[in-house]
Amino acid sequence: MINRLLAKNNVKILLVVFLISLGLLFLRDLNPTTLDANLGIEFVGGVRVPISLERSVDSDTMSLMVETIKSRINKFGLTQAVVRPLGDKEIIVEIPKAGSGAIESIERILREQGRFEAIVDSREVLNGNDIIASAIGGTTGESVQQINGQVQWSLVFSVTADGQAKFGELASGKRGLPVYMFLDRPEFAVVIIDDSTSVFNQDDLLNSLKKQGDDIVLFNEKDFLLDKQKLLSFNKTQVVLSQDLKESNPELVSFLRSNGFNETGTDKKLSFKPAEDFSPVFLGGSLSSWRAIGLQSAPTLQVEPLKQRIITQYSISGTSPGDTPEEQLQNGVNEIKELKTVLSGGRLPVSTIVGSYYDVAPVLGRQFLVYSFLGIIAAILAVALVLALRYQSIKLVIPIVLTNVIEVVILLALLGSFGTLELSAMAGVIALIGTGVDNQILITDELLRKKQGEEEVSEKEKFKRAFYIVFATAAIAIVSMMPLFLSGIVEVMGFALATILGIIIGVGVTRPAYGALVEELYGFKK
User: Are residues 132 and 260 in the same domain?
Assistant: First the structure.
């Protein structure tokens, strides 16, 4: 009988899929004693990062925001991160098993709006629309290396033919001048610095602030003490200052807020950045980067730009901070990842404010995971008991339960390998156990009718009738779950996805194999 079963295509497909699923769950790290699944934040701990939008958005804009943020995080290398909308003005990012370094990098990525500008002699010569998203970095387009005791990184990207033609026209005659490359340069802004800010080359520093129609104003903290109203006389709509000033000079912050500047403002915006961002980096006596104003790199224009419509490569470079060479190298790698992520991830259509992240303890998560698997085992045992009472035949109960177990394993492998196995998804897996048994009982009862002396119907007709009902109920269940899956409601999306995948696995793999198995057990012939 076993040989006849193994000869059936439905059973062969089931066995192959089952073995692949076991490999995905236990052999991806070549250690069969560990579960190799992408577990959700409820099970392994991690952090949640809330992101507030500057205004309410419609569903299409929210979907674009979520997809852009998800694209950026995935390109950084955190494929297990989950990005979910919450209402029409907030997005939640969940990052399982994240270390402090990864969190800091992700926070910087989330703060970036993705607005790229290249400025030569106060004129914008390139912007993000000129960059070819698929031609950023790559095996030969990025490097991190140690030179003269410093770790230097570089990232090569390509601009379109139209972008090169524009660059050649606007940068003509500017050979020898720096090309200031910005990412999210603050618009209509005042940047407040304190006396500790290094100004090694004052002219370079001031030149980097210039842009036709939108010069950035540099304002010293001590000038505020002498003349508060001078800060307002610039008529700017954004003030950028360090987190340290928020604590060391509460009078300054209070004055700004009393005049309409705040973190969630749209007309007047208050932006706080880490204190280290306010120290400009100089190389060879020239300004190289300055995070406070979004300056990523400032290479010198070495040759006269070509006035031709051809795809051209440019590069962004800089040095990596760090107390040790290893830390500097890692920071360089992260810097390139962040730049690639933002440059290729698109521009966010709405400005965002990244809130303080909070930890989710992994201790409670391990208990959740144990309880979830215990729930699956309890559901399978309960189903087996009911089947035993109904059919009073171990010969029939074992294949039903075995098929159910195989179905659960396949679903766990799919969710854990290509998605995230979270708490709501586990609820969907447990629910699948009951719905799967319903279909198997239907198939069994249809095939047993001949044994019970009912009307003579060929086995082929019985199979067709049983699977017609199975496919019909599956289609109805999938349609009913789609609104939940697309709703954006965090608590039900995982449940809906698990249910839909489980139904597809059932009708495509396990139900046909079970039909072949029962047919062989009871000697039916098609």
Answer: yes
Same domain, 149 and 280: yes
pLDDT score for 362 = 66
* Tens digit of each residue's pLDDT (9 = 90 or more) over 97-155: 766 666 777 777 777 777 889 999 999 998 888 888 778 887 788 888 888 778 888 88
How many beta carbons lie within 10 A of that of residue 284, not counting itself? 6
Residue at token pair 């090309």: 179
Cα–Cα distance measured from residue 504 to residue 498, given in angstroms and rounded to the nearest whole number: 10
pLDDT number for residue 452? 45
3-class DSSP assignment, residue 449? coil
User: Tell me: the pLDDT tens digits for 257-289?
Assistant: 999 998 876 688 888 888 888 888 887 778 888
CB 11 within 8 A of CB 392: no
Rounded distance, CA 117 to CA 182, Å? 5
262 and 182 in one domain?
yes
Q: Are residues 440 and 397 in the same domain?
A: yes
Q: Number of folded domains in the chain?
A: 2
Q: Which residue has the tokens 């139904």?
A: 503
Q: Rounded distance, CA 500 to CA 491, Å? A: 16
For 181, the domain range is 115-342
What would the two tokens of residue 200 be? 């090694």
3 state SS for 242-289: EHHHHHHCHHHHHHHHHCCCECCCCCCEEEEECHHHHCCEEECCEEEE
- What's the CA gap between 327 and 359, in Å, rounded? 24
CB-based contacts of 243: which residues, under 8 Å, 6+ apart?
272, 273, 274, 275
Mean pLDDT (whole number) for 448-456: 55
Look over the chain and give the mean of its residue pLDDT values, rounded to a whole number. 82
For residue 463, is it within any domain?
Answer: yes
Nearest to 341 by CA among 51, 48, 137, 179: 137
